[in-house]
Every structure is written in structure tokens, then in C-alpha cells.
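Postdoc handover notes: sequence design on the structure in folder B. Input C-alpha cells:
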């Protein structure tokens, strides 16, 4: 068990909502607090700026955290009252009970499906990309396995990274810092199944294109630990490795219930999405015809990225507010545990309902065993 001080990405709202901070702003009875509310407000703003400047950083001692947050302010002659120092440090202190486990090797079937790929490593403390590389097999885990000294797992790696030693060293240092803070590196596959006459050159080309598109060029900043690439957030078509493992390793769904109504809810694939959130998203407006709405307790199968995420029984339908000439409907229902046990986390593809691809409407009525065009 260890104690660290990490400035979280949501530090600003937490700082604003802190009862200690609010008490400091409202009272001048605290130790070394100025009687002038304008001075206290300025001190509050100085600390808020310092916290924002250090988002994502982890410190292994209270002295190091204090120096990073308050020394610049003290150097300007303003100083930081004890009450504000303690409020800030209490907001960022964390007890790490157990280090997160190292990632497990990819199943052989998944590695084969990925082929040559471009990957990105993301620091969850500030949602920044700190490394982009290319490879095949388990290469996406190479730096983390090296940082965590997973010698046996490293023997599974194919080929070598082409980065210089200083880049590798900086990456490993940052990864260890992430794990020491009680977090884990997030692994994203940016593009996979890359093919060309020379796969390595193709992957390098995609890697450089990615760097240009994202603007992930190494630069001098006050945020420590940038390695071979640096960026703000990973909001692309990139997919977490865990999601791709789920897609490519998942068993196909059994025969679909007839009738049923399939709906594609992209947000259901979001990491950490709760069952309540998935249900709320699944109830959006759908082009449900009379046959669907008139079928008592028709199963509604929710999928995203070709993986079933939930199954409900529609108990009733209500017309949604109209924004176009098309009448759309929302269902109210409940989860079906029996069907979820059969379908959730399994792979469903358009051919299972006689289609070549999923329709743009996001919904499919599967009412009979007959196939379109037959």
C-alpha cells in the first residue's frame, strides 16, 4: 500500500465544490487568511491555476506535490495560506492498495484478425496519448510489459520497436508512474489489418499520417513525460484493445428469436457504460412498424460493434416527438435475463438477418425466418 498525490482530470469542479475552499472564501477567521476577500479570491485563483497546470501529474511525497503546486506562487510573493494548501493536497491524495495487473496476451485468433496495426497508449490521468507505434501480435503491450518487468510475456513479442533508447526509456518511466499511481495504461488500436507489398513500410506510413492528423508532435510543455508523440485526447475511430478482443474472440450468437427487433446503439460500446445508461440510449426513436409494436413483449436486441450488449422485452411503445416526416417510436420494457444469458457479449452480424450490412436507420425488424429477396 502506498500514498501518492495525483492531480485528477476533474480537479477544477472538485476544487470549486470543496467545502474547505468555500469556507476559506467565506471567512477570514482561518489561520493566516487575509481579511480582504479580494486577496483570498486571488489566492484561490492562483491555486486553481496551479492545479490545472499539473493535471495528470503524480507525486510520491507531499513535499514534491507542495513544491510543484505552491513554489511558483510563493515565489511571486503572494503565498498560499495553510487552509488552501491543505484543501488542495487533500483533494489529490490517493492510497494505492494494489498495483493494477499487467495486460494479458491476446488470444491467437484475435492477433491473427488484427494483422499489422497502429496502436496508441493513453495516460488515463489526463486522457493524453503519449506513445504511438506499429506492430503485430502482442506488440501493443510491449512497453507495458517492459515497464512491469513481465519477462515471460515479453517473449511472446514479434519484432522490435524502432524507437531510440531515450524514447523507450521515457515511455517506460511514464508507464511505471501511471501504475504507481494506481492506474493502468489504456491501449487503443488506431488502425488494423494493414496490408501492402511491404507491411512494415505501410504501418510506418499510417503511423506518420496519424501523427500529422492528430498534431501529436513532440513539443516542450510544462506537462512532464511526453515521449515519442504527445496529444490532447483520443477521440477517433480508435478502439480499445479490450473491445477488439471482445469482437474477434466472441462466439457467434445462436439463432435469433423470431420475431425480434434489433437496434444498433453505438454508445453501448462505451467503456464503463452502465445498464441504466444502455437502456436509456436503447430507448431512442426507432422506425418500428406495426408488426413490431403489435407483437407482445417482442425482444429488443441491442448491439454495438457487432456485439450484443443487452436484450429487453418491449412492454409498450410511444410515439416520439417528430422532427421529420417519419413517425418514430420509443419502447418501454425490462431486461430479459434468460435471453441476455444467451446473447450478451456474443457476435451478431448482418448476414444473420439476411443483410450484407446494417441499415443506416440503426434498426432491423426480424419477424420471420424468411430472408429478403427469397
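Designed sequence:
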Amino acid at each position: 500500500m502506498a500514498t501518492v498525490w495525483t492531480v485528477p482530470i476533474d480537479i477544477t469542479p472538485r476544487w470549486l465544490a470543496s467545502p474547505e475552499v468555500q469556507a476559506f472564501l467565506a471567512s477570514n477567521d482561518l489561520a493566516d487568511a487575509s481579511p480582504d476577500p479580494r486577496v483570498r479570491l486571488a489566492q484561490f485563483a492562483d491555486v486553481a491555476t496551479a492545479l490545472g497546470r499539473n493535471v495528470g501529474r503524480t507525486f510520491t511525497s507531499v513535499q514534491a506535490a507542495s513544491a510543484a503546486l505552491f513554489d511558483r506562487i510563493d515565489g511571486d510573493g503572494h503565498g498560499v495560506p495553510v487552509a488552501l494548501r491543505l484543501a488542495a493536497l487533500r483533494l489529490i491524495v490517493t492510497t494505492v492498495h494494489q498495483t493494477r495487473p499487467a495486460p494479458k496476451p491476446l488470444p491467437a485468433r484475435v492477433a491473427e484478425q488484427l494483422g499489422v496495426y497502429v496502436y496508441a497508449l493513453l495516460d488515463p490521468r489526463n486522457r493524453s496519448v503519449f506513445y504511438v507505434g506499429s506492430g503485430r501480435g502482442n506488440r501493443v503491450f510491449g512497453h507495458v510489459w517492459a515497464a512491469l518487468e513481465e519477462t515471460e510475456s515479453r517473449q511472446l513479442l514479434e519484432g522490435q520497436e524502432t524507437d531510440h533508447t531515450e524514447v523507450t526509456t521515457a515511455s517506460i518511466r511514464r508507464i511505471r508512474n501511471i501504475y504507481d499511481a494506481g492506474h493502468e495504461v489504456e491501449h487503443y488500436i488506431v488502425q488494423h489489418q494493414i496490408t501492402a507489398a511491404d507491411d512494415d513500410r505501410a504501418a510506418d506510413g499510417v503511423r506518420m499520417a496519424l501523427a500529422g492528423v492528430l498534431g501529436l508532435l513532440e513539443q516542450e510543455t510544462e506537462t512532464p513525460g511526453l515521449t515519442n508523440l504527445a496529444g490532447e485526447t483520443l477521440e477517433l475511430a480508435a478502439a480499445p484493445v479490450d473491445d477488439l478482443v471482445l469482437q474477434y474472440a466472441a462466439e457467434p450468437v445462436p439463432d435469433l428469436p423470431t420475431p425480434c427487433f434489433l437496434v444498433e446503439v453505438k454508445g453501448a460500446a462505451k467503456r464503463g457504460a452502465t445498464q441504466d445508461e444502455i437502456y436509456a440510449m436503447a430507448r431512442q426513436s426507432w422506425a418500428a412498424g406495426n408488426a413490431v409494436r403489435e407483437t407482445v413483449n417482442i425482444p429488443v436486441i441491442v448491439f454495438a460493434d457487432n456485439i450484443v450488449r443487452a436484450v429487453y422485452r418491449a412492454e409498450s411503445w410511444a410515439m416520439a416527438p417528430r422532427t421529420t416526416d417519419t413517425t418514430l417510436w420509443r419502447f418501454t420494457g425490462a431486461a430479459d435475463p434468460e435471453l441476455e444469458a444467451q446473447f450478451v457479449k456474443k457476435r451478431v452480424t448482418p448476414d444473420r438477418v439476411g443483410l450484407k450490412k446494417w441499415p443506416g436507420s440503426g434498426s432491423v425488424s426480424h419477424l420471420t425466418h424468411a430472408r429478403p429477396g427469397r
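Context for whoever picks this up: Residues 101 and 243 are 18 Å apart (CA to CA). Don't rerun without checking with the PI first.
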